[in-house]
Fold these 4 entries.
Entry 1:
Amino acid sequence: MRKYIYLALISITVLFSGCRIKDAEHAEAIPEIEVAEVMTDSIVLHNDYPGYLQAHTKAEVVGEVSGKLLTQNFTSGSYVSKGQVLFTIATDRYRDAVKEAEGSLASAISQRDFYTNQTQALQKAYEREAVSKMELLQAQASLRQAEASIATSRAQLDDARTTLSKCTVRAPISGYITLNEVSVGNYINGEAAPQTLATIYDNSLFDAIFSIEDDKYPTLLGSQGEQGKAIYRNMPLQFQTPLPHSYSADLYYVAPSVDSSTGSLQLVGKVSNRDNELKDGMFVTVSLPYGSEPHAVIVKDAALSTDQLGKYLYVVNDSNKVVYTPVTVGPLYKDSLRVIEKGVRPGQKYVTEALLTVRNGMTVKPVLKKE
């Protein structure tokens, strides 16, 4: 009898030991998974609109005289300063015109001096009744004509000098200059019509130009108070290829009319090119504010997955089981967060790491990731 009792005790011991080993192995099999809590925040809601950048200030460098282009005094693509000499054009004919105008002025001055002396002499003679009044009047008329000729000659000289100065083409503004459109040695005919030689872009400030649907205008119009206008400052911008720095635009122009062919309204925002990374003509996406949500539900955008039914999260319930949870998503927030319109509630935990290794119904050991 003692033998059987001893064997029974050994069997029970082995049985309990096996259960403990299985429990330990089961505990070790439950993976630790990083999770985060669904948060809430007060956010400004945006709609994204495609647009493009245009230099707020640009100017064409033009030749306004005719002649051979002699020199180019800049490197294409470089920064030039306002007033800097960019091109020179042959001056021979325009220098001759200045000399001719100077000669005409000297002749007019000489005639005026002659008629001045003549008038003074005839005035004295008339006072002695040595000449007729008609002779005096003719001399006075000739003097006035000579003075008018001086005024005309001076105007012609000023015009000739101005034209001569245009043979030296200077930068109208400061900025970055394009390739020259006419090579040195070629003849330009600027007298017929100003001929474009290059274009200068002031890249310090840009316009972000985009359009919205006309039915969105009432919302825009409803935010005309100072508090409302504040949300249209620092509108986030996104580029096709992310830039090293972030940029925003301040809305300053709303078109006075709707484009009847497209049913859209043009808007323009100013963008400071503080890091000199923006270029004229770049495509941009403008995030235009349209309202605010004081208690928006927010999750990490990277935690979202997509299947045929749409977006979903892996939520971890109170029993530490993974639950496949479809969600309705809203706009991106602060680059890495996503607004959730439906599907989860604040305080719930969701999987943020190892998304490919978890599955619906799986038991996990959630580890709350500290931010």
Note: The chain has a mean pLDDT of 87.
Entry 2:
Amino acid sequence: MNKVAVIGGGAAGCMAAIAAARTGSEVTVYESGERIGKKILVTGNGRCNLTNIYADVKNYHGADTEFVRAAAEEFWVDETLALFNEMGVLTKTEDEGKVYPYSKQAGAVVDALRFELERLGVRVVTGFEVCDIIKKNKGFMLVSYDGRRERVETAVVTTGGRAAPSTGSKGGGYGLLEKFGHTVTELSPSLVQIKTKENVKSLKGIKTDAKLSLGSASKSGELLFTEYGLSGPPVFWLSAYLDTQKTIAADIMPEYSESEIEKMLIMRKEHAPQLPIESFFVGMLNKRIGQLIMKQLSILPLSKSAGELKDREISALAKKIKHWEFTVDGTMSWNNAQVTRGGIRTCEFDPKTMGSRLIDGIFAAGEILDIDGDCGGFNLQWAWTSGYIAGKNAAEFEWKKR
């Protein structure tokens, strides 16, 4: 019976352990925290957006996204949904292909994984943070920070990245793999709020529907202004595309063309020429948004009347509403990020097995690898896919054939 160690009890780790145990192997999950699946609980705003029916290679980022395509041929969305259904998780597909548990509870997904691990006889050791993996004859020795040691035959590293460290993802797994010659790309927070050079503190807490663009990437949704810049679903989505582009353009009236908006503004000026421009957008845009736009275009003072607005100022306002630019000044910290951009280079692993090309018996899955997905269930799908493949192949690995 093969002894499989799964290092990390997150989404990828739980799936790896289930896949390995279903082969009949003896499996142990080593989790540094007090419980498994902690990060799953905060996904999808506590509802767990566990996959997306439209998941495709184009939804992923990394040095080699074809790595995802090869893995998807082994285990993908249909197989994931079938497995969760088998474990008792009824699902519901919502807008944009997002799949949630029908109960709308992330805890239900964690419980289903936990019950399946128990059913399969998987041993779960919490409070065991692996600090070293020592190569032994036909196997490895796992060493914890408190000095405990356990001998295993194969090891699946699913320790996650650096995003959301409060859930247990601290980046410790990178060092475990680097000692065997693996390399790590540059790491950065992704699916995270964006800081802007422009001061938008006066709009803190205000939400508005908008279409945001970053280079050729665009996303519509609810834009939230913060004291440091921008947040909201479309901002999180675009943060995955910050490689080279540094300017975000917001269209805060996407249903209308620039010429239509200009005509509206002219009509407003003609209808109420005595209205102070600080209230010019009332009924059209949030009052504070309108005032900040006026200030940024130097259309001042705000006490002057609408009748004093020049034609060029009306045109400038219409253009600003359709193309309001914000200069990216970084992102919020790892504490705010949902996922890590970058990771262990995928060229050093086999996408069909998730096995290391550098050291026999070592496998990896999930966020620790240089693959991250768009917002919308894509990262959890990668965790399920890579975890399942890694666990199954770690269990079927036989030293005697090497």
Note: The CA atoms of residues 192 and 337 lie 5 Å apart.
Entry 3:
Amino acid sequence: MLWVLASGSPRRIELLNSIGLNPRVIPADIDESAVKETNPRRMVTQLAMLKALHVAKRYSGKDILCIGADTCVYIDENILGKPKNEAEAAEMLRTLSGRTHEVYTGFAAVRCTNMDTVADSQVTKVRFKPLSEEEIAAYIKSGEPMDKAGAYGIQEKGSLLIEGIEGDYFNVVGLPVCKLGETLKKEFGIEILK
């Protein structure tokens, strides 16, 4: 079976490579603003499914499994996606400073042989240390916040901002690999660990 990842996220590619899937990478070109969902769990799951289906359609009937994923940060009943600019990144980091927020990642899989689908999501709580304006400016200057939901990544320099987590670390990175593996085994009979 060939695996396809409907995402260009270097973090998701690395996670799937680390469990031996080595997927072909074909980022889904979809309009994410078309999803108007305000519930974070439903939003990330819907976007993951849209991405997976968008790419899977080109492989209909083939022995391929296509995976899509989407991640958001949720705090104060607001969904934080990727910042549009440095000012927005700074505002997001100020909001997260010294507080606990939730990270939701939705994933979807499409079995292209018959276009069967499955989707689920995971949530992890992340606690930030209090951040000074100097730390916020330095982190933004690193460039890391600009392509990440909530303006941070838990890996690399972003790890310096985080006091602790409750739940799946890999979910915060961008893909809850344990839950993905369990879901594929239960729904499709696909065992990654064998």
Note: Helices lie at 10-18, 40-56, 86-96, 133-141, 169-173, 177-188.
Entry 4:
Amino acid sequence: MIPEVQDYIRIGEKAGIHSKHLCSKRNPWYALEKRSPAPIWVSVFSRKKIKFVRNEANVSNLTTFHCMYVTNMFIDIDVFFAYLLTDIAHQVLLDNSRQYGNGLTKFEPNDINNAKIVDFDILSDKQISDIKYLYSEYKKNEDPAFIKEINRIFVSVFCDIN
């Protein structure tokens, strides 16, 4: 190992960096995290609306975003992402966020993990097809009318349950 790198590592150990939560979980402690690119990113901080990014390029992200992985193989990732863009999803997710001055919202990783979410199994095949179509149209020109229509579908599903 290059002497300058060894010196840098020793400085980190003197400062106790190797004992910090994330670093202590790595072997060696100074290694970068090894994880696959997430299909969806959510911004750590936001004002007004939560920011989501659909990672279609499959690139790794920086720490300004939390990674979201869809572990249920029966959930269509585009339907899930379309849901995240709706007002109803934002209202639900904000229940698990931290609020700071001047409308600053912050999400810790477990805030997202512990958030409530709709049961996508209750969506009909037609509703899924409609959501996928509306989302594909939204991607073409980012017309908010498409997201409003997706929101309407999710609201109708929630209202039918209650």
Note: The radius of gyration is 20 Å.
